[in-house]
Amino acid sequence: MKSENIIQLFPATGDARSLQGLYLAHDLRNRASEGGPFVYSNYVTSLDGRIAIPHPSRPGLTVPAAIANDRDWRLFQELAIQADILFTSGRYLRDYADGRAQEILRVYEDEQFADLATWRSEHGLSPQPDLAVISASLNFPVPEALTTAGRRVWIITVENADKDRVRALQDKANVLVAGEMKVEGDKLVQSLGDRGYRLMYNATGPKVLHMLLASGRLDRLYLTFANRILGGDPFATIVDGDTLEPPVNFKLDALYLDPLGLDGLGQLFAAYEKA
User: Fold this and answer.
1) Rg (CA), the chain
2) By C-alpha distance, which of 80, 96, 194, 91 is closest to 129?
3) Beta-bridge partner residues of 6
4) Is the overall model pTM greater than 0.90, yes or no?
5) Residue 133 three-state SS
6) Taking the alpha carbons of 63, 25, 152, 132 in that order, is the dihedral positive or negative?
7) pLDDT tens figures, 151-210
8) Phi/psi at 221 (nearest 5 deg)?
């Protein structure tokens, strides 16, 4: 993977940057230390707003193969490796248990990410960020592989969750209630913040992003705009839910052109800060 030739468009310097280390340089851990919990998220999207389309061989949606790419995945890893805890979903754990989902962090399986494992160690962090699994149904197992190397798994659920499922999951994970009928963003972030987590990376889909936005708990948003239009129905875009009233405002913090992405078609890497 060629790492050079990322062009900084905003702030408008026109400087050439390296892909490797591009998002590490955003120093998110320092941002989190300045106040309370800091929550950020990241998506790759087509130009027509699609982050997921029907899976070709099984029910459900998946990231389109036409826009998924190694260069965006490198930056996903740079964001994930900085976190204290990652937000994920019950669906991810079901897919993981069935062998259909890869480990969110790949830095221990691929030599090209070895620098990220070193970065985490040099910053005095545990080998892996902890996991927060957001689910009301609790219809998933906790795979043994996700609790290795001292990683803690938190199940974030609701007051009316199935008590038998709660008891079954408590053997492998810590269960937190963050809402009565549905998980609420403010309670989720505050509960984890009270337990010492400061930097939280949302790696889930559009419904959880809506929850975080509606509660005012998303501080930073990363988007990769792949230069392709996909079409098709159904599909998912970055947020799914009721109209946000008032709308949630963001300001562009950084914008980069990756002319080598998608085999030379190109893509944009954007970072937005909550206004």
Assistant:
1) 18
2) 80
3) 17
4) yes
5) strand
6) negative
7) 899 999 999 999 999 998 988 899 999 999 999 999 999 999 999 999 999 999 999 999
8) -130, 130
